[in-house]
Specification:
It is a single chain. The protein has 5 helices and 3 strands. The chain is of the alpha+beta class and about 100 residues long. The chain has one domain: Winged helix-like DNA-binding domain superfamily/Winged helix DNA-binding domain (Arc Repressor Mutant, subunit A), CATH 1.10.10. Helix 1 packs across helix 5. The protein is elongated. The two termini are about 15 Å apart.
Length: about 100
């Protein structure tokens, strides 16, 4: 698991019950979109995340629609397991 993926997981676990937009995750994890979105896609394919498109009209919002991501129960469990293993191997690290 890459350091970038760990940062994404840390960002998502900071608010496990909330939905975060891709841009919010990128800001927290300090990752560019070209790095972030492939990670989000892989995590969603692994069922660690689920996502949805914003339903509001982009014209009314005056901006493009956002895609929101939320960590699943499986994702919370697996991410915490991975972060515990990394912390155990390398000491307490900050992921976000």
């Amino acid at each position: 698991m890459s350091a970038q993926t760990l940062k994404v997981l840390g960002a998502l676990l900071s608010s496990p019950r909330d939905e975060l937009s891709g841009a919010e995750i990128g800001r927290v994890a300090k990752l560019a979109s070209g790095t972030l979105y492939p990670i989000l896609i892989r995590l969603e394919q692994a069922k660690w995340l689920e996502s949805r498109w914003e339903t509001d009209d982009p014209k009314a919002l005056g901006r493009p629609r956002r895609r929101f991501y939320r960590v699943t129960g499986l994702g919370v469990s697996k991410a915490r397991e991975v972060l515990r293993e990394v912390d155990s191997a390398f000491g307490s690290l900050s992921w976000a």
